[in-house]
């Protein structure tokens, strides 16, 4: 995904980029469109300032593109939803197997809670292969003025 912006300021290795989600090809927000304008929506509002690593050497006032690689949203979904859900299911199954006959539901519930908690801790400690880092996985590309026919990808 790609969205255009303007560098507001540069401070050391980072650039503060003003991005707007009111861009794109006209089909970006429609069903079947690329969704390229959605890059700033997780940060709230239609206009945001993002702190991005300035590896490209952009300067204040320069038009740039802020890019998120295609695999990043999938990895975020895995971290946020799949890992805790797998923990709940595995914990409930293990609790059910280990429980005495009279308290199966209690053990399953406790196992589900412990499994979810363990999964969240593993993701936060970045011990899973797709856990990623705490830095926002975005990069700058200089010359961010895309033509109106581009779809942001």
Encode the helix/strand succession as letters.
EEEEHHE
Poorly predicted tracts of residues: 146-153
Tell me about the largest β-sheet: 5 strands, antiparallel
Give the overall shape, derived from the CA principal axes. Answer: elongated
Strand order of the largest sheet: 3-2-1-4-5
Mean pLDDT: 77
Number of helical segments with 4 or more residues: 2
User: What oligomeric state do the depicted chains represent?
Assistant: single chain
| Terminal-residue CA separation | 5 Å
Provide the number of structural domains. Answer: 2
Q: Share of helix among residues?
A: 25-40%
Task: Summarize the structure in words.
- The chain is α+β, with helices and mostly antiparallel strands.
- It has 2 domains: 2-68 and 137-142, no CATH class; 73-124, no CATH class.
- It is 32% helix and 23% strand.
- It is built from 2 helices and 5 strands; from the N terminus they run E-E-E-E-H-H-E.
- The protein has a 5-stranded antiparallel beta sheet, with no helix packed on it.
- Strand 1 (2-11) and strand 2 form a beta hairpin.
- Helix 1 packs antiparallel against helix 2.
- The N and C termini lie close together (5 Å).
């Amino acid at each position: 995904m790609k969205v255009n912006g303007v560098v507001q300021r540069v401070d050391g290795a980072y650039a503060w980029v003003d991005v707007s989600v009111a861009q794109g090809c006209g089909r970006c927000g429609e069903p079947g469109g690329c969704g390229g304008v959605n890059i700033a929506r997780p940060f709230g509002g239609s206009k945001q300032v993002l702190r991005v690593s300035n590896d490209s050497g952009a300067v204040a006032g320069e038009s740039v593109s802020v890019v998120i690689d295609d695999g990043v949203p999938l990895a975020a979904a895995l971290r946020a939803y799949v890992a805790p859900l797998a923990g709940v299911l595995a914990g409930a199954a293990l609790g059910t197997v280990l429980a005495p006959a009279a308290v199966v539901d209690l053990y399953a519930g406790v196992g589900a809670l412990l499994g979810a908690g363990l999964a969240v801790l593993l993701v936060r400690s970045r011990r899973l292969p797709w856990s990623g880092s705490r830095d926002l996985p975005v990069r700058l590309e200089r010359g961010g003025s895309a033509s109106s026919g581009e779809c942001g990808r």
